[in-house]
Amino acid sequence: MKLLIYSHFFAPSVGGVETLVLSLARGLAGLLSPSGEPEFDLTVITQTPAEEFDDCTRPFRVNRRPSLIHLWDLIHTSDVVHIAGPALTPIILGLIARKPVVVEHHGFQTICPNGQLLVEPAGSPCPGHFMAGRHGECLRCNSSQGWFVSLRLWLLTFVRRFLCKRVSANITPTAWLGSLVQLPRSVAIPHGLEANAAPVAHALPSAHPPVIAFQGRLVTTKGVGILFEAACILLKQNRDIELLIIGDGPERDSLEERSKQGPLAGRVRFAGRLAEAQLEAALAEASAVVVPSLGGEVFGLVVAENMARGLPVLTSDLGAFVEVAGEGGLSFRTGDTAALALELARILDDPVLAARLTELGRQRALDLCDFQRMLAAHARVYERART
């Protein structure tokens, strides 16, 4: 089968979509038929320039920044077109070419003009204004970018929904997201963890003081500020803890300044973005991982990966996180610093609870995010789309 995967962003760009698309493409390229032949003749199309990245090292072709005519040719000669996110141009060309088009949703672009399901500029969770028909709220939400931009984003949301109702299949990583987008021919396929993303679970570290880790992009919506406030509560209770912040982003400077004040002073380490081996070594120190996002999450890859590592994971109670963690993690009310502090104290004070989370979380992650099952599920969607 000639499979075309379109992802606007791709390696060497760094982000969740890039990681997931690369993992999916690498896995699909390795699938073999009973005769030993590759199941897929796979090409990835992206608008991301290669820079110094060597595409020849990949087991699939990568076509970067094709012209509109070249994009049409690639779509026209493919059997199935898989689009990472509801990108308008490839969907339209795929439908015109009468090709089976599969859209995998990595955000909320079909139900929220800003794609994050967040009320801006505060970054607070949106109750679903667009789907409830409260379009004035949507227009006001993005008005800080200018009314013309806000109107354009709002109109494009209608266009994306219109097009995604006409594709062959809509893939969501969680059933929760599927219930929100309410698109036909929808199937939930959890993201898979490749073997190197799920090492053998290790024992909880005995280091003192306990290390609470955060891993993610340093932006307001990831909730690092919420973690800081919860840590202040615990430190004022004379608890001896440290925070390990893994990742980078536009909020790093302000977070570093904030970490030098009050009870946090000397208690926060910023590790930056880490390579795989460095990441594993850093997380080996952690007693727990906190994922305190305020919104914008459709799956929670960090949640699944750290449960697979055998670390107790504590998340905000966003729908995607609750579904991914199941009984293998603890949650607290989104944005509630006191609740986060209380749940952290439970993990730190109760080694039996921590051990239970380690065991249940690891098993949950490996069951839910089985990589081969994820590849097989995608292959079935492509095959059904062709018939």
Task: Please tell me about this protein's structure.
The protein contains 14 helices and 15 strands. It is α/β, with parallel strands linked by helices and about 375 residues long. The protein folds into two domains: about 1-190 and about 370-385, Rossmann fold, CATH 3.40.50; about 195-370, Glycogen Phosphorylase B (Rossmann fold, 3-Layer(aba) Sandwich), CATH 3.40.50. The strands form three sheets. Strands 3-2-1-4-5-8-9 form a seven-stranded parallel beta sheet, with helices on both faces. Strands 12-11-10-13-14-15 form a six-stranded parallel beta sheet, sandwiched between helices. Helix 4 crosses helix 5 (about 145-165) and helix 7 packs across helix 12. Mean pLDDT is about 95; it is low at about 195-205.
Using the alpha-carbon principal axes, give the shape. globular
The largest sheet is: 7 strands, parallel
Order of helices and strands: EHEEHEHEEEHHEHEEHEHEHEHEHEHHH
- CATH class of the largest domain, named Alpha Beta
Strand content is 15-25%
| Total domains | 2
Class from helix and strand fractions = alpha/beta
Q: Tell me the number of strands.
A: 15
Q: Which superfamily, in CATH terms, is the homologous superfamily of the largest domain?
A: Glycogen Phosphorylase B
Alpha carbon gap, first and last residue: 13 Å
Q: How many helical stretches?
A: 14
Rg, rounded, reads 22 Å
CATH topology of the largest domain: Rossmann fold
Q: Give the rounded overall mean pLDDT.
A: 93
Please identify, by name, the CATH architecture of the largest domain.
Answer: 3-Layer(aba) Sandwich
